[in-house]
Amino acid sequence: MRRLTACLTAAAVLAVSGCASAPPERRDAGVALFQWSWDAIAAECAVLGEAGVDWVLTSPPQEHVDGATAGLDGADGTEWWWSYQPVSYAVESRLGTRDEFAAMTAACRDAGVDVYADAVVNHMAGVESGTGWAGTAFTHYEYPGLYARDDFHDCDRTPDDDIDAYREPFVIQHCELENLADLATESEHVRSTIIAYLEDLLSLGVTGFRIDAAKHIDPDDVAAIVAALPEGTPVISEVIRGAGEPVQPEQYTGSSTVWEFGWAERVGAFVDAGQARALADLSPEGYGLLEQGQRTFVANHDTERNGQTLSYRDGGAFAAATAVMLASDYGPPTLHSGYAFSDRDAGPALEADGSVADASCTGSERPDPEGGWADGEWVCQHRWPGMLELVSWRTRVVDAPVTEQSSTGSVLVSLRGETAAFAVQLDDEAAAVEVPVGLPDGRYCDVVVPGCASVVEVAGGILAVELGPWQAIALDRFTRP
Questions:
Q1: What phi, psi does 436 have (nearest 5°)?
Q2: What's the mean pLDDT in 270-287?
């Protein structure tokens, strides 16, 4: 049973006045568990479901290139991006077997957490030949039982058929992205093959999909594929916003939601610079962002490698930006959780057989561990102090719209009328603030600190608190000592 809809027992630390006063619950937050094995996700879903997480995003589940067989100069087969080079649509990869995948979706479903799969359907492999993880032999444009040369684009616009500039939709959506064999998604055969794969994942318990590299697929083709899925299937298209480019996220919101990369870039920059006032005034219209169909994130597996956004290395600033996202009204949020790396191509820790070692979170993870992180260590950003607590808080307050946003120096304040209040310090120094809030006078649990171990008081309509470096505080009318 989802804990936030249940009556709280006498042993519960966070007390409300019986079931009649229990808060509403609406889940909309997701967690991207990058390169987590199916067994590890299955184990983690119990924690996520208890916290109020709505869905998890897996890495691609299909058979991919076994990089050790590809003979690619400078690569040894351990790199993470082999997962994004399909060889077949068999659900067999170094993240686990088909049976383990099905067991994972069942475990997550039992925990109240949906599973979204990362669907790589723009392309196949980016090498000339090799063998897949499950033993499928292939060449660049020949995949047994799936595709032959006529099923791929031949853009004939650049010397090597690769995308050489982002000036024309044709080049962006018909030429190859870094030599990845580009599927002719306008073809009925290609579409039906992709749809059969997605339907197979649905039969294994998947609820929704992330469409990888959707920017490189014509919006009409994405729409046709989505239309063939059961009505209401959640789909998120990856469409990176580029200034002045002809392909933009707005072109995909008719058939799916999209992540707003522009939001992640701006919020990360404002948080890092302590510009609370800019965050308080952040509006989609004023900053050229999506006004519908958007989802938010602070980092994903690409942006934490290319420096486009904040990353786990930014420690307190990254945690504060995640808190801002969870307190925001602008789109359902997605948290990111991965592993530490110094080489952007480095894959996760592997077992002796080449499979990915199970991720493991201890519950004691922090944004500033002594000695930092070793390469390959699971960072477990979603388990940093306050992160899952803020997800739980969001389930209770998200239906009450943000009524006011303001700033006091480097402190951002976000209020939801008589329902909730949030504040975060965007600096590595402490700050004392007095904030007018709509909550009735009285004592409240700061839900960012588990177990109501931190209690604050609203007196005369004022919340007076001292915030430590990068510290967030969140209150709601349902959570009183």
A1: -70, 130
A2: 95
Distance of CA 156 to the CA centre of its chain: 35
E strand or H helix at 337? strand 333-337
**Distance of alpha carbon 242 from alpha carbon 227, whole angstroms:** 27
Reported as a single tens digit per residue, the pLDDT across 49-74 is 999 999 999 999 999 999 999 999 99
260 phi and psi, to 5 degrees?
-90, 95
**What is the chain's length?**
481
* Helices 387-397 and 316-327, packing angle to 10 deg: 10
Residue 205's closest CA among 114, 121, 119? Answer: 114
What does the buried/exposed string (b/e) look like for 6-45 if buried means 16 or more CB atoms within 10 Å of the residue's CB?
A: eebeeeeeeebeeeeebbebebbbbbbbbbbbbbbbbbbb
Each residue of 288-343: pLDDT tens digit?
999 999 999 999 999 999 999 999 999 999 999 999 999 999 999 999 999 999 99
- pTM, two decimals, is 0.94
Q: Which two tokens stand for residue 306?
A: 């290319």
Separation between Cα atoms, residue 419 and residue 409, nearest integer Å: 24
Q: What local confidence, expressed as pLDDT, does residue 41 receive? A: 98
Residues 234, 359: Cα–Cα separation, whole Å: 26
Report residue 14 as tokens. 């966070």
The token duo for 427 is 């600096």
Q: What is the largest CA-CA distance in the chain?
A: 73
Give the contacts of 230 (CB within 8 A, at least 6 positions apart): 202
The residues pairing with 6 across neighbouring beta strands, listed in sequence order, are: none
Cα–Cα distance for residue pair 463/454, rounded to 1 Å? 14
Q: Burial of 288 by CB count in 10 Å (0-12 exposed, 13-18 middle, 19+ buried)?
A: exposed
Question: How would you classify residue 386: left for phi > 0, otherwise alpha for psi between -120 and 50, otherwise beta?
Answer: left
- Cα–Cα distance for residue pair 183/123, rounded to 1 Å: 5
* Residue 147: partners with Cβ closer than 8 Å, 6 or more residues away: 124, 141, 183, 190, 193
Question: In 3-state terms, what secondary structure has residue 68?
Answer: helix
> Residues 40, 30, 421, CA angle at the centre, nearest 5°?
125
Residue 32 host element (H or E): strand 30-33
The predicted-structure confidence for 411-432, as pLDDT tens digits, reads as follows 999 999 999 999 999 999 999 9
Q: Residue type at 262?
A: G
Catalytic residues: 212, 238
- Which of 3-17, 78-92, 120-134, 190-204 is predicted with the least confidence, judged by mean pLDDT? 3-17
CA angle 416, 422, 423 (to 5 degrees): 140
Task: Give the pairing type, strands 137-139 and 129-131.
Answer: antiparallel
**3 state SS of 130:** strand
